[in-house]
Write a structure and sequence with these properties.
Length: 339
């Protein structure tokens, strides 16, 4: 009786959320049709993922449109009266959050294996590969024991001895915008529009050297132009030299993921759900990590060449606030920059 009531309660919760439950009761060959995927992913992992999906479901054909995230979400919005895409695979979750009205909620079967900070609480998007923000340092330019270990330590960084900390411009760089929001959300509260967070950013700003592109926030560290930089994990780990050190801030850091989302009123809902289940599934997560260096989001997949996400202190990144206030945040940053 208790088991029956638990099942009924679970179903009621699903219906209350408006989330369609996926029942994988068919054999793989029983699925058929054409699925349309929009994706900003690089061609190699994109094509590999599609090929693996088609191999698993031989009677399903995948058509895809590859473009930048901004262009793809704008295209989905423009097509909303008569959707063409079934699913968006990839794109930063803060962008997906800004366009959540064009997606429909879906809770995948492995949701308990994903940290709750890495998916929309109503399941409009699910993270599929997290991208932690890290510090990168050149120990030929700064002693290892002087490298900042927390965001808080950035405010007291010894620029006289070690120069300024490299960061890209949050106005033009998506990753730097996430880094700015990370500081705001760590040290402020939404109730007052992160006023304390902005105070902290104001203290850190004199320690920063704003670069013209995201790549310079790590390339200039390698070249010795700066001793420390703030960058994406996936950029930092490419350097194999012993003098290049990667730090995961111990006071918490963001790991804004690439996400997967099902398009609202899509033509092929069942196949869209099947695809989301696939890209979040164990086999795809393992192969995307092993073959293309993408960090898996599932807790039961041990990443190759990366520390487990469970060893990274994750902060609560306010996706909706970042998405809904991006222009105001960027304007406030520029005001601070010009004094």
């Amino acid at each position: 009786m208790k088991k029956f009531l638990a099942v009924v309660l679970a179903l009621c919760m699903v219906l209350a959320l408006g989330v369609t439950a996926f029942a994988d009761e068919k054999a793989p060959e029983e699925y058929s049709g054409t699925l349309t995927v929009y994706s900003p992913h690089d061609s190699d992992p994109l094509l590999a993922g599609i090929a693996a999906f088609e191999a698993a479901y031989p009677n399903v054909k995948v058509e895809y449109v590859a473009d930048g995230t901004s262009n793809l979400v704008a295209k989905i919005a423009a097509e909303s009266a008569a959707p063409v895409a079934d699913v968006l695979w990839g794109g930063g979750a803060d962008t997906l959050a800004a366009y959540k009205n064009y997606f429909q909620p879906y809770c995948p079967s492995g949701i308990d294996l994903i940290d709750s900070s890495l998916y929309d609480p109503e399941y409009y998007w699910i993270g599929e590969s997290p991208l932690p923000m890290v510090f990168i340092a050149n120990t030929n330019k700064i002693p290892a024991d002087k490298v900042p270990q927390t965001w808080a330590e950035l405010a007291d960084f010894d620029t006289a001895s070690y120069g300024k900390i490299a960061i890209a411009d949050p106005v033009s760089s998506g990753s730097a915008f996430t880094q700015l929001c990370t500081m705001l959300f760590l040290y402020g509260e939404e109730a007052d529009d992160y006023a304390s967070g902005w105070e902290f950013v104001g203290k850190v700003l004199p320690k920063l050297e704003v670069k013209s592109s995201s790549s310079l926030a790590h390339k200039d560290i390698y070249a010795g132009e700066n001793s420390v930089g703030i960058t994406l994990e996936k950029a930092a780990i490419k350097y194999e030299e012993d003098f290049m050190v990667v730090v995961y801030p111990t006071d918490g850091t963001s790991a804004v993921p690439d996400g997967v989302a099902i398009v609202k009123d899509c033509p092929n809902l069942e196949l869209a759900q099947l695809f989301e289940e696939f890209v979040l599934g164990y086999d795809c997560q393992v192969s995307q990590n092993a073959d293309w260096g993408r960090r898996p989001i599932r807790s039961d997949v041990t990443p190759v060449g990366l520390c487990p996400l469970s060893e990274v202190t994750l902060m609560n990144y306010n996706f909706d606030y970042a998405a809904n206030n991006a222009s105001a945040i960027k304007e406030a940053w520029q005001d601070l920059l010009v004094g």
